[in-house]
Structures are given as structure tokens and as C-alpha cells.
Amino acid sequence: MTAFIEDAVGTSAAFGSSQGFPEDWDLEALWVSLHGIYPVGVTISELEADCGGRSGISTEYLQQTLVEDALKKYEERESSLSPEIMRELERRVVLSVLDRRWRDHLYEMDYLQEGIGLRAMAQRDPLVEYQKEGYELFAAMMEGIKEESVGLLFSAEVSVETTSEGEQIQARGISNKEENRELQYSAPGEYSAPVTKTDDVSRNSLCPCGSGKKYKRCHGDPRNR
């Protein structure tokens, strides 16, 4: 997980300092973005003071400072929970994010495949374009997995209940695929037809809800959940 933290925070810092001179960097917006990943402990004022003003801040120093700060917060999080609970939390976070992001990626690849033929009309090789855009989607998925996993690791509310069978760990905000196969999600005021245990339904089969649509266009589409 420390590698995820280094990549997610380092990438955000690099992106936030990629345009123009340090005086032009929107560090305030970067800090807002970073707070969605981890509880930032260093302030912009402290960073400027260390570098003799904003003009003295370099991308390398910004990345190093923020990554070190994030790793420090990670150690504090682990100390507050215990190493054992932290490992279990990490496992659940990564599995939950990976499962959802991978399914989203498969649907994006489906849409890409269905529309790739249009590239030929622009005198571009559809196969080359498919490979290129497919790789870009995969890379974006990997970056998203890292950033979301780190964000959940810091934001998840964890409670430990001691039972006769040992300690039971509950983490709010993290889905457990094995325990929530029959959960349904719908927007407030809307009704979603119940579909239970759809793991065995092919994406090209008719949806079990009876809508007449293919599963991948109905309850199998993450955007409809």
C-alpha cells in the first residue's frame, strides 16, 4: 500500500506543478485534491517558508514533501488501528476497488470496441487505434485504483467487535462482494428491480430483471447501479 500512496500522491503533486513557473501553480486547488486522497498534514505556508517563498518550490521538493507527509499519516493510521487490522483493511479496500474498477474497465472496452469502426472513416487504422486507446483506458484504470484505494484507506470508518469467534472488523464505505451479493442500489425515490446473485449471468444475455435489455446494458452496467 505504501507504493500506492507514493504513486497517487506523487502523481497528483507532479500534475499540480506541471504548468508554468512555481508562482503560477494553483497549490490551493492541489491541496483540495490531495485532501480527497489523504489528510494532508503540511500547509502551503509551511512549504513556502521552507523554500523562501513560492518561487523557490520545485516539483521534486513538492513531491518529496507530500509523499513523506502521506507516509507519515499512513503510519499514524496503522498505529491507531494496529498492524493486523490495517492489513485486513488494506485487503478489503484493494479487493473492493479492484473488483469495481475492473468491471467498469470491461464495459469501457465494450463501448470502445463497438465504436472503433468509426476510426476507419477518418482514415485511421481501427486496430492501431483500439490498441492505443485500450492501453490508455487500462493505464487510467490503474491510476484510479491506486488513488481510490488510498482515499478509502484513510477515510473508511473502522470498528472492531469482539465475539466468541474472535474479532470482527467492520469498515463502512467498503463493499464486501461475498457478503453483499444481493444488495441493490438505486437513487432516492427510484425503484430498482431486484436482481440477486448475478455472478453467473453473461453480459450478452438478457437481464434477469425482465426489462428485455441485455445484462450489460441493464443491471450489469455499473452506471445503472
TrEMBL record:
Its cofactor is Zn(2+). Residues 174-225 are annotated as: Disordered. One of its GO terms (cellular component) is cytosol. Pfam families: SEC-C, SecA_SW. Keywords: Cytoplasm, Metal-binding, Zinc. One of its GO terms (biological process) is protein transport by the Sec complex. GO terms for molecular function: ATP binding; metal ion binding. InterPro entries: SEC_C_motif, SecA, SecA_Wing/Scaffold, SecA_Wing/Scaffold_sf. The keyword Zinc applies. Residues 5-156 form the SecA Wing/Scaffold domain. This is Unannotated protein. It comes from freshwater metagenome.
